[in-house]
Amino acid sequence: MLVVEAKLKNGTSEQYEKLNEAIKTSQFVRNSCVRHWMDNKGTTRNDLQKLCAVLANNKGMVELFCQDLSHSLCCCTSPFH
Predict the structure, then answer these.
(1) How far from 23 is each of 3, 15, 28, 40, CA to CA, in Å?
(2) Domain ranges across the chain
(3) Quick check: 47 and 36 in contact, CB under 8 A?
(4) Percentage of the chain with pLDDT > 90?
(5) According to the 3-state scheme, what is the secondary structure of the chain?
(6) Which of 42, 55, 59, 65 has the fewest CB neighbours in a 10 Å radius?
(7) Section 61-79 average pLDDT
(8) Mean pLDDT (whole number) for 52-70
């Protein structure tokens, strides 16, 4: 498992917003990869890298994903709300 750590102390609201966006994006990519791995037996690392490339080309996917969920669930993924 890869752990990414970020520290932001006394940042601006724009910096916190960007950090929240990065957190939501990484969670979305992680969850998409886990779902792909669970649904497709024999998934390799290369398959997951290809999936990440597809997700990277679809810039609006995280926003669409969050719209499908209830607002409260989407906001709960952020430690700053």
Answers:
(1) 11, 12, 9, 26
(2) 22-76
(3) yes
(4) 26
(5) CCCCCCCCCCCCHHHHHHHHHHHHHHHHHHHHHHHHHHHCCCCCHHHHHHHHHHHHHCCCHHHHHHHHCCHHHHHHCCCCC
(6) 42
(7) 50
(8) 68
Q: Which residue pairs from 14-17 have beta carbons closer than 8 angstroms and sit at least 24 positions apart in sequence?
A: 16/80
| Radius of gyration of the chain, Cα coordinates, nearest whole angstrom | 14
Q: Among residues 23, 36, 81, 32, which one has the least CA distance to residue 61? A: 32
Q: φ, ψ for residue 11 (rounded to 5)? A: -85, 170
In angstroms, what CA-CA distances link 70 with 19, 40, 65? 21, 27, 10
pLDDT digits (tens, 9 = 90+) for 25-59: 888 888 999 999 999 999 999 999 999 888 888 76
Rounded CA-CA distance 17/47 in Å is: 31
